[in-house]
Amino acid sequence: GGEKKDMPDGKKNNIDRLRVFATFAVVMIHICMTEVENSSLAVIGAGNYVIYSVGYHMVRWAVPVFIMISGLLLLPPEKEISEKKIRHYFFRMISVLLIFGTVYAVMEIVFDSGLEQWYLLLPEAILRVLQMKSWDHLWYIYCLIGLYIITPFAKAAIINIRERQLWTLLCVLFFLNFFIPALNMMTGKQFSTFYISANQYFFYYLLGYYLSIENNRIIRNKKIVYYAGAISFVIMSLWDALKISYCGDYSHWIRKANFLIPPMAIAVFVYFLTNHNLNIREGKVLKSISRCSFGIYLIHPFYVNIFYKVLHITPTSFPIVFGIVLLFVIVFAASWASTRIMTIIPILNKMI
To answer: Which of 70, 83, 95, 188 is the most buried (most CB within 10 A)?
Structure first.
């Protein structure tokens, strides 16, 4: 979401490229994790499990980057975004939930219970949407609704905050929302967050804006940022691989300790934001995928579930690396094509 007016063409193009790259990554998350979440290590095999795990950690930055893009586009004080526009974004997400969330909830109910109580199907599906019990990937829509609600207040505060103060706030949010929960996970203790913790995704939202500030301290030290991102990926992948190989299970604290994800998300974001000579053509395909990115996000789990749960075709049906690539290409292409079709349907076009 967000407007792009008054943005230099080079930065606009780089954001499009970043959005496309993040869209690829989101699809890859579900290609790698769906079988893991629905099968045991014994069934999948330790070697395949490790490959899934490495693939997953490679792309865990995807949704944080989408939220950072929203922060970059919506929060800068010079971006005049009216309350009417914010309301438009808000009701757009509500419409998405009511349509896509309800359809997915109906599918899940039918899959679990059949059509015996068909007359309760729609009310039960809507209730699940209200309870945030539709398909898991829709958590992002609930998150966006919350961010849109606080956007006018965040913009008002940003006008009166200096770069150093914002940096301090980001450090505090990181400590409370990433570091302390990770420490609790690793030690089994319950260290207090002092009752002032904020949602971790608000951290990413503010971070996207912070990175739009000219010559901010992260951009000034981007080499360190790249090293931190690479080291975070290596730690997550190596620790998980060792745990799977020698203990027969993945590392719970690595999966849930999100303090290693911000360095990766920042590294990817900074790379695309600051490299204006990326050797990627700004053609019709790139623009189309960027335009369809939200629709691809919404619909790709449908195709993943068709392959994995209905057709029983997963990456491990083939040599796993080939299987991951093959299913990624098929699911992405099908999702992109479906979104292109939805963009010519008037009601859906306004949502996606």
So the answer is: 70
To the nearest 10 degrees (0 to 180), the angle between helices 139-159 and 200-210 is: 50
What are the structure tokens assigned to 117, written together? 């109580």
Q: Spell out the alpha helix ranges (H) of 120-199.
A: 121-130, 139-159, 163-174, 180-187
What digits encode the pLDDT tens for the residues 32-66? 999 988 888 888 999 999 999 999 999 999 999 99
267 vs 68: CA distance, rounded Å: 12
Say how many CA atoms lie within 13 Å of 82 toward its Cβ.
3
Q: What's the pTM?
A: 0.90
Nearest 5°: the CA angle 241, 247, 251 is 55
- SS3 call for 28: helix
Using left for φ > 0, alpha for ψ between -120 and 50, and beta otherwise, residue 310 falls in alpha
Q: Which residues of 192-230 are buried (b: 16+ CB within 10 A; e: fewer)?
A: eeeeeeeebbbbbbbbbbbbbeeeeebbeebeebbebbe
Express as a percent the part of the chain with pLDDT over 90: 63
Whether the per-residue pLDDT at 193 is higher than 70: the answer is: no
**Token pair belonging to 234:** 């290596």
